[in-house]
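Hey, I'm writing a tutorial for new members on how sequence and structure tokens pair up, and I'd like a real worked example in the thread rather than a made-up one. If someone can provide the structure for the chain below, I'll link this post from the tutorial.
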Amino acid sequence: MICTQSSSSMMEGVKVVVVAFFLAFLGLCSSKPEGYVFLEHRHNVEAWREDGWEKHDRLSPSEDVFLTFALKQSNLESLERYFWEVSDPRSSEYGNHFSLSNLTRLIAPSQATLAAVKAWLGRHGVRPSDCMTVLTKDFMTCQMSCEAAEAILVGAKFYRFKHSKLSRPVIRSVEHYSVPASVASHLDFVGGVLHFPAVNGPSFSRLSEEEIVDSMESSKPQDKDQIHIGVFPSVLRERYNVSDTVGTHPNNSQSVAQFLEQYFNPGDLTEFFTLFGSSFKHLEKMTEVIGPDSGRSGIEASLDTQYIMSIGAMVPTWFWSTGGRHESQEPFLEWLVDVSNHPKVPWVHSVSYSDNEDTLDVDYMNRINVEFQKAGVRGLTFLFASGDNGAGCKKKKFRPMYPSSSPYVTTVGGTAFNDPFTVSGEYAYEISGGGFSNVFPRPSYQTDVVENYLKTGPHIPPTSYFNPNGRGFPDIAALCNHFWIVNNLVPVPGVMGTSASTPTVAGIISLINDARLNNNKSPLGFLNPFLYQNAAGMYDVTTGHNEGCLSEDTGFYAATGWDPVTGSGSPNFPALVKAAISNQ
């Protein structure tokens, strides 16, 4: 947007002043030279403060900054067409996934784009040796001085920011940045400037101290006919009919993505399986570790590794840790770039990462959606936690999360047992993230079920609270509370969050992939068309609701069929395997 002034009339002058003031308030009126354009806009310029970040010192001109340039890709319409074709069981192309080299030939930026960006950076002293380009050629990460970075991105001013949950600061700008118009047409955004890491993770169930002590006495592994309090692997395996099934195919694999100093301890894994792994065969160690893993183990990392490896048992597992190699890098973006730069990666990825949709630039989210399409075309499954804030609430509107709201990923909501003393049915748990995107329209794979919910569902909130035409989420759900983990060699009860549901579902999908691979079929890849076409293979969750803005802090209610708290329900493993094997 351009800030203008007019003197044609006093009334028009007043109007322009008001508009200019409003735009400045939104942070959209930052100064920029003529011939430059803003590449991104944060509509909530105070989002970093609201999320608990504190601004500290300004960087000195000589300090290093890493910037990731998202170059415009080619043939995006073809990419999306292929994405839907290889992901839809009803398509003749289902499962005909691309190799990374074939994907690169499709979407790599044009030579004109590569030349324009390199020449622009070169004029500011950034040499080719200062930059790393990924195999798909659509991301370029460059190291430069802060002085050079602020000259390249006019308007940016880099500061250190600290958060109480993190030991390391991050480097970001609170000002919007602009680039020459001749360059803007070759870029989607520049990473490491505006986007702050999402600081979230599992929490603990609202148990009293007496209840936790009782849980520790009664929740140790028992025969299946005995009662349980709390959730551990044998409970999940019984509930979802996994029984003693484990992976056997040598080409199967799965991964957990971790960010922001979340590490796992191999000793915790050993102790966890000693306590909870006697009823099924399992791997003793992580197959591969990418990135840093040298600190004290975290609740999130312990939860994710222990449950994906105990549900997707015997499936080779990667721990993909992204701490940000430098304070100016964005861990989530860095992870996506790494996936783009590996010819061979695990088939299933469990990701407990989410951010508020309204704090992100639409162009940024659209580009990240392309990264999800790239993954789906390669046959990769991305499972994202739906978030732990229910429907969310801000200014009397629900607040969807991203990437949970992306139409190109599978989003996992949370449930709880109707009876915590038995392996019983489930109800929608209050923290389960869910709702409707305010940005992305409803995808065709969920049209019928969402329309049915909006017509027949119980207690539908007024549409002033949500966008009924948006992508509805989650897609699937699983138990999310009262999980047992081992953290720093100590058994810990009462862990909860959709970040518990997600590795649980991921492990089940890995076992379904195993069955397909053993039947000479491809991995499932992007799941949603398969899931919505085979909703009968899930346990419908019809009671409960999540939190939100309405009276008594309610959001959406569970319903018969799909609902925006639990999706189509929780998995029934044998039924989903049968459906997966029957597809080509």
